[in-house]
Specification:
This protein has 258 residues and is α/β, with parallel strands linked by helices. 50% of the residues lie in helices and 15% in strands.
Length: 258
């Protein structure tokens, strides 16, 4: 996995780096497959509580490798590539651990999809985001699945129909990212929020993340029934009992992650 690097920060936080600056960290067959393996591995690592994803070099990711795409020719090959990309996005959303996108430079097409698929996203002030497929005759249909679940329809359609990039400040305003910072601050800010999340119960975070995404797709009445069931399950856990006791006793909780 020479193009995918892993750094362990503060023992409990893993940084996944797409390390292929010559292709602007393109999501090629190889990189997609390696990222899926890495995310699965980290999701099952008992020591890791938070995962950060970032790109090496000048930017985050330009999306699919167009040289690779143009050489595929056969329908089955195209289908395999887009299915693999979707598998990565689902791995991030359905995984047990929070994933944070740390963005600099450009996040375009499937790169923008990757940002939107993460639970949280932070960028430099000069980062740009786009779904520019329309400019090359290839509508960003799979990227819009993730992005349209973060921003409203009119904004999404303008991004899709024009292909125009948006700046970080506007990306924050529309809900695509959580916040943007000066380049010198980004690492510090992302690590700070990662440490806050890592200080919580792993079990509680796992239940909460999975419940959040499932209830989003449900009608209101069904969502309340489902979340009531999940809160009951959470309440029966040792960590919920410990957390409530710690609050009442005005002390820090000692999580068992059970």
């Amino acid at each position: 996995m020479t193009n995918i690097k892993i750094k362990i920060l503060d023992k409990e936080i893993a940084s996944v780096i797409i390390n292929e600056s010559k292709t602007y960290n393109a999501l090629s067959f190889r990189n997609l497959g390696d990222l899926i393996k890495v995310f699965k591995k980290l999701d099952n690592d008992k020591n890791i509580k938070v995962i950060i994803i970032e790109g090496a070099g000048k930017g985050f990711s330009a999306g699919h490798n167009l040289k690779e795409v143009s050489g595929l020719k056969k329908k089955a090959k195209y289908q395999k590539l887009f299915n693999l990309c979707s598998k990565l996005m689902l791995q991030i959303v359905e995984g047990k651990k929070p994933v944070i996108a740390k963005v600099h430079g450009a996040a375009f097409a499937a790169g923008c999809q990757l940002v939107a698929s993460c639970d949280l996203a932070y960028s430099t002030n000069d980062a740009i985001f786009a779904t520019p497929g329309v400019n090359i005759g290839l509508f960003c249909s799979t990227p819009m699945v993730a992005v349209s679940r973060k921003v409203n329809r009119k904004i999404m359609m303008k991004m899709l129909l024009t292909g125009d990039p948006i700046k970080a400040k506007y990306a924050k305003e529309i809900g695509l990212i959580n916040d943007c910072f000066a380049k010198s601050q980004l690492d510090k800010e992302v690590l700070k929020v990662s440490k806050i999340i890592a200080s919580k119960s792993k079990l509680t975070i796992k239940i909460g993340k999975q419940t959040f995404y499932k209830q989003l797709e449900m009608p209101l009445k069904k969502a309340y029934a489902y979340t009531s069931k999940m809160m009951t399950k959470n309440m029966m856990a040792m960590d919920a009992k410990e957390g409530i006791s710690a609050f009442l006793e005005k002390r820090k909780p000692k999580w068992k992650h059970k």
